[in-house]
Sequence to fold (245 residues):
Amino acid sequence: MTTNSPTLAGRTIIVTRAAERAGGLTTLLHDQGAQVLEIPVTTTVDALDAGIALQTAIDNIESYDWVVVTSPEGAHRFREAISLTASVRQHFKVAAVGTATAAAIGRADLLPNVQTGRSLGESFPAGSGRILLAVAQSAGTDFEEAARHKGWTVHRVTTYRTIAITPDQDRKTEIARADAITFASASSVRAWHDVFGTLMPKVVVAMGPMTATALTEIGISDVVVATEQSLSGLVEATAQALASR
Fold:
């Protein structure tokens, strides 16, 4: 975040990020002076096969021309798994759906103009090789449909699952008093809606267009979308939105 960013001192921000990933966002918000309410409504768990398919793909990684990741969590799990396989020669190219996902995997040879699976598919080159697509169980199919249409063979591997969790206490009063709420994924939007409906502060901030679309689908039309799809970008967008209201 730039030094000229608006301060969040005296503001209360709700973080809905998955429980095990909330800390980084909370720290960034605290650094800007915010009070943070962590109300995670999702958590990430292993794939149903406990990672066997991912490890098998990594053991045969030299057969792939590209590795494609569409979420920071999936990228993190791929990077963690491949780091345990010392013999792997990482000759493949990497495509990531956005800057936060690229940071999680450590590099990216291709990023789309709009950080969605559909845009990534549209910007992907034509070819005839093999792609390892490492994604969440619930991930959409926009990228792989586009890649197959362009001649690629796509091997989709589930790296993790996102499951809903219910807060262990009534948080409605705190929610009503907060200044803003942040959503980093479409799954967190849907999980929030299952528990709280459309109860949320007036300022609603989404990390990217897919998350914003999920908010629109549940009836939230006034959504601020972060220009940079990263945790620091989410904080920046929150600060800017609150400074103008």
Observations:
- Strands lie at 12-15, 35-38, 42-46, 66-69, 93-96, 130-136, 153-164, 180-183, 203-206, 224-225.
